Amino acid sequence: MPDQAILLVHGMGQHAGPKENERGDFGKEFVTAVNESLNSFSNHKTDLIENHVHIDEFNYDDWLDHMRQTMADKATKMSDRLSSIGSHYGVSVPLEFVGKLVSFESKFGDDDVFYTHWLDVLFYGSLLGANIRVKAGLKIAELVQQFGAGNVHIVAHSLGTAVAHDTLDRLYRPEHDPNDTIPDLSPANDRLGSIWMIANVSRLVNSVTRFSDPYASIVKSGPDGCANVFTNVRHELDPFTWLARFDPPNNGKWLDHTNYTNDYENLVTNLVVDGNTHSFKQYLQDPEIVQRILPRFIDNLSITAPEFQQFVSNYETNTINGAYAALEESFANLSVTDEATWGDFLETAKTLKTITKKIKKDLQ
After folding, report:
1. Could you give the 3-state DSSP secondary structure of residue 20?
2. Global pTM value
3. Domain coordinates of the chain in residue numbers?
4. pLDDT tens readout for residues 342-359
5. DSSP codes, 229-274
6. What architecture is the 5-63+123-363 domain classified under in CATH?
7. CA atoms of 11 and 105, how far apart (whole Å)
8. Hey, how many other C-beta atoms are within 10 angstroms of the C-beta on 198?
């Protein structure tokens, strides 16, 4: 059995969870994407990442499913739908939340993705996040106990970056609450091997929830953080990473200059092989990510410089002609912000969906 473990934390949208002897959707997507890249190299034609590292998943899809189904019943009044959700999950629903959802639904509810994806973010950031964080905390603590903290790595995508950040902030908090159900880990003794935040929206979510500021939390690398290495990944044209962008400067505040240089990396990709620049697979298979993730997890990796250059060239041939310019034009009215609202998120999501659909149609 491998001596290292990756915990995958999926983003918004429906992801079937793992079953006995079968990976969940997100695990399959990760393994397939990484292995396709790995098998491109002559010394690893039949190699598999799962032979080098134990791959686990934290899946919270089923926890959100009742909410999605209830909210999609547009024939029922919003107040009744939220009352049903509150009763099912044992949470109280603030009156102002009803008004906000009525407004959002009137503007965005004609799109099914509003119910299958976008509401995940709103409900995680309001009524349903606490239970998700408890379960995620238990999963991380379990892997730390089994493999040792330094051998545990977290790979999170999209909404999963907020889930991972908020959970780790509670797991490693300096004060311990003996009455809560979240385990307590020590940054001195239980520092994780690495954290990978792909399409990081932790600041976007915190802009609304004010749960934990990613620039002030313990979720960072180095001796003052909860991981040895922190890798942040964004695509130049992933608009979700424009809203309350996670991009801490090297000014000694988030990390001291030495740790920022040695233990933190901010990867920015720009190739477009899928009109959906928020796609997890596109992120994983970009050469910028491949050349970091494979050495981290593959034992005895053997790739020559010419081989990797050929890999880059092959990937570049798959870029969609004109897609970068089309995306850039579509996002002309969007800008990088330091704060964001749920309305900003929904407007951005709608814009990305529209341009992605157009790009796919143009390719047919």
Report:
1. coil
2. 0.96
3. 5-63+123-363, 71-118
4. 999 999 999 999 999 988
5. EEEEEEETT-GGGTTT-----SSSSSS-HHHHHHHEEEEEE---SS
6. 3-Layer(aba) Sandwich (3.40)
7. 21
8. 26
